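Give me structure tokens for this 264-residue protein.
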Amino acid sequence: MKVIIRNNSSEGSLWAARHIAERITRKASVTDKPFVLGLCTGSTPLETYAELIRMVKDCELSFRNVITFNMDEYVGIPEEHPESYHSFMHRSLFDHIDIPEENIHILNGNAPDLEKECREYEEAISREGGFDLFLGGVGEDGHIAFNEPFSSLSSRTRPITLTADTRRVNSRFFGGDPDAVPAKALTVGVATVTSSQEVVILAFGSKKARALRDAIEGPLSHACTLSCLQNHPCSTIVCDEDSVGELKVNSYRYFKAVEEAEGM
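Here you go.
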């Protein structure tokens, strides 16, 4: 696991965007196979998406041969609802870049058979050869996607019931009312994420400090699903100074020294 520590979220977001762009460009230089990219929602990736949009508009990057799969979606709200992840992704990224519509995959939270929808989503990811890179965020309790604490580390895409804490945190998108947040969602599993060739997780702000401490310095545990990255051969957490406030001093110094040595 690598930990990239930047001064603030803006610097971390730019690092992530440029890293993703470099990976897309690198693959395009050696093969015509599409780049398969996992994407997340919420406020955390917005600056990263803004930089990717800028790169496309300035002809520094193209998404024409990129296939995307989003990590989750609420159950029971219309796709056109302003807080559905379909709406979020088009508003925040897809409507501003050159990605073909048929290359975009987002779980259908209104499918008549949710279990079947999840199975078919996993099959679609497999048909594309799996993720080249998965971009995610982390919840305050250490969850990735909607894999709440105590989710199996071998889990795959499935329906899940959201915890009261997750609904409380997400209520800022629903007028501050936790009861307005859907109680269920569809989510890729922990193993879906860790099957990616590369995983990049964004974690900004002091509210993520405990989650980072548990994931980086704590044991591999389903109590903190982000800790799954300890077993991943190519994983990176991109964070800011506020989010590493609970790391041990020597841990912090180690990761900063690695950054300096590798010129990151």
